[in-house]
Amino acid sequence: DFMQASWDIEEVQAKGIQQLASFVKDKSAFPYLLKCTEVITLAMNTHTDSLDLQVEGCNLLLEIFRQALEQGLMMALDESVASSLFHTVRKHAENEEFISMLCTLLMMVSASEVAAENLRKVGIIPELLSILRRFLLNDKICFSCCAILWSLAVSENNGDQAVLESAVPVTSAVLQKHLQNGVVAESACSALWALALQGCLTDSDYEPTAALLLDALRMNPERAVLVKNGCLALASLVRLSETAALAILLDLKGSGIQLIKDEYHLHFDEPGVAEALCLLMNEMVQYDEVMLDMRCHKMEKLLSEIKLQFPFS
């Protein structure tokens, strides 16, 4: 009530946010703090020029949402709150430290389908791509932005197809730059998978994207989620074009088929990885030339191993 009575006074909003933040460590206060998210974002949106207020507000929201996730609660931002956060992003797009915090916050809320849809409606995707281009070397920002892109693309209703298509080269650039960073590479692979599912890649994208995904698998063989999502992304590419399937067979850095076999043996007890590999192989055998090569690599033996390992799946 104190904050709402004086929207236009920056000091009141700052003091209010500080007072709310003092309750964060009190678990009994959490249900009440949940009801304050709109007030906090509105204060941030009303006083966008004050970076200190933006930082304190963002920190408080991060803590509230972190506690919500720990308790299994999904924070569904309405469109007005999403719009407020979007304007905050645009206003301070050059401040790397603050943008890193804000992107982490957006990543946390975008897990909700409602929040993802509202962020998409207010036009967050072009802003995310601009942030990625500007801060391509920042691993935290790249991780968060790719995770947000994944959430927005999988919930996409194809109303923004052209916008999503423009995300492909940027996401590929992130993966290329952070191949050795398993966390970022995993996030970028997931985003590319979602973009491939939405049919956002063009004919010229299939071969280089397939090669890039294979590089990510080679560089991070121990990361089961990356292997799974990388294979799902490859499967989506192969479904669209034989060019992608041939790129896997003829990759200059080594046989993609052998890589698939090696990845399975490394994660033979992971049903998600096995399922993704099977899906990829199922797409590849739709092409006669590819199927002959897979036979030469004795893929029947691998399939038999998977069938024995997961007889009831």
Automatic annotation (TrEMBL):
It is an enzyme of class 2 (transferase). GO terms for molecular function: ATP binding; protein serine/threonine kinase activity. It catalyses: L-seryl-[protein] + ATP = O-phospho-L-seryl-[protein] + ADP + H(+); L-threonyl-[protein] + ATP = O-phospho-L-threonyl-[protein] + ADP + H(+). The keyword Ubl conjugation does not apply. The keyword ATP-binding applies. Its EC number is 2.7.11.1. Keywords: ATP-binding, Kinase, Nucleotide-binding, Serine/threonine-protein kinase, Transferase. It comes from the Eukaryota. This is non-specific serine/threonine protein kinase. It comes from Picathartes gymnocephalus (White-necked rockfowl). The gene is Stkld1_1.
